[in-house]
Write a structure and sequence with these properties.
Elements (H helix, E strand, L loop, with lengths): L1 H11 L7 H28 L11 H12 L12 H8 L36 H13 L20 H14 L24 E4 L8 E4 L2 H27 L1
Antiparallel strand pairs: 1-2
Helix pairs in contact: 2-7, 6-7
Length: about 240
C-alpha cells in the first residue's frame, strides 16, 4: 500500500521522486509508520499457518517446537548461523601441523627464537575486516545484477538549526485543519469532488497494472500531512533564498 500511496503523492500531490529534499521529507513524515506496518506484517506472518507437509503449523509454532526439542542457545553471537558457514569462515584450514618437541602451537618455547617472525612495523590486519572481505568475495559469484543506487535524500536546509526549526513547525502545522492550495488535497481540486480510493501501480516494465485500494480514512490524512509539510518547506526555502 505504501508504494501505491507514494505513487499517488507523485500523481496528485506534487511529490518529485527525483528531488532529494522530497525524499528527505518523506523519511521524516512516514518512516516510523512504515516500520510499524512492517513489524505488524512480521507478527501476522509468523502466526499464519503454512499448508502442505508442515501440517498447518505457523512459523512461530515451528520455532517453539524447535526450541522445546533442541533447546535455546543464549548470548551466543553465532546463534542462527549454519554450522557449514561457521566451519568455513571460523574453522581451521589445511592439514594439522606437527610441532617439534616442547612446542604446542600456541607459542614457541622461551628458548626457541629461530622461527619468530620479524616485526615489519605494519599493523596486523583487522580480523573482522578480513572476514567481511572473504565473505564478499565468496558471494560475488551469486550476484548477477549491477549495484542498485540508493536514491539520494538530504536536507534542503544548510544549517542544522534551520532543519530543526522546520521539523518543529511541521508538528504544529499538521495539527491544524488548514489545507494548502494547489496540492490536490482540497475537495475543489478533485475530479467530481470525490477523493479517489484506488491507485494503480505498475510493478514492472511490461505494462502490467495492479489496482490498490487506499481507504480514505487512512491515506487521505497522510496526504494532507504531506501537502502541509511540503507547502511549509517550500515557503521557508523561498524566504531563505530571498533573505
Amino acid at each position: 500500500m505504501w508504494r501505491a500511496f507514494f505513487t499517488r503523492l507523485g500523481r496528485l500531490h506534487q511529490l518529485d521522486r527525483k528531488n532529494p529534499a522530497h525524499l528527505w521529507l518523506l523519511h521524516h513524515l512516514f518512516l516510523a509508520a512504515i516500520n510499524e506496518d512492517c513489524e505488524g506484517f512480521r507478527r501476522e506472518w509468523n502466526l499464519h499457518p503454512i499448508s502442505g507437509r508442515l501440517s498447518d503449523q505457523s512459523p512461530a509454532d515451528m520455532r517453539f517446537l524447535a526450541q522445546t526439542t533442541a533447546g535455546v542457545y543464549r548470548a551466543d553471537p553465532l546463534d542462527g548461523i549454519h554450522p557449514d558457514a561457521i566451519n568455513r569462515y571460523y574453522g581451521v584450514e589445511g592439514s594439522p601441523r606437527r610441532w617439534r618437541c616442547n612446542l604446542t602451537g600456541a607459542g614457541h618455547a622461551s628458548d626457541d627464537s629461530e622461527d619468530e617472525p620479524e616485526d615489519d612495523g605494519l599493523d596486523p590486519p583487522d580480523p573482522d575486516t578480513e572476514l567481511e572481505n572473504r565473505i564478499g568475495e565468496d558471494q560475488e559469484g551469486n550476484i548477477r545484477h549491477a549495484p542498485i543506487k540508493v536514491a539520494k535524500h538530504e536536507s534542503p536546509f544548510e544549517a542544522p538549526e534551520q532543519g530543526d526549526m522546520f521539523l518543529a513547525l511541521v508538528d504544529t502545522i499538521t495539527a491544524r485543519d488548514k489545507l494548502p492550495e494547489d496540492y490536490g488535497v482540497r475537495p475543489t481540486e478533485w475530479d467530481g469532488f470525490h477523493y479517489p480510493e484506488i491507485e494503480v501501480i505498475r510493478p514492472g516494465t511490461r505494462g502490467k497494472q495492479i489496482p490498490v485500494v487506499l481507504p480514505r480514512e487512512v491515506w487521505y490524512p497522510r496526504a494532507v500531512t504531506w501537502a502541509q509539510a511540503l507547502d511549509l518547506m517550500n515557503r521557508i526555502l523561498t524566504q531563505l533564498e530571498d533573505a
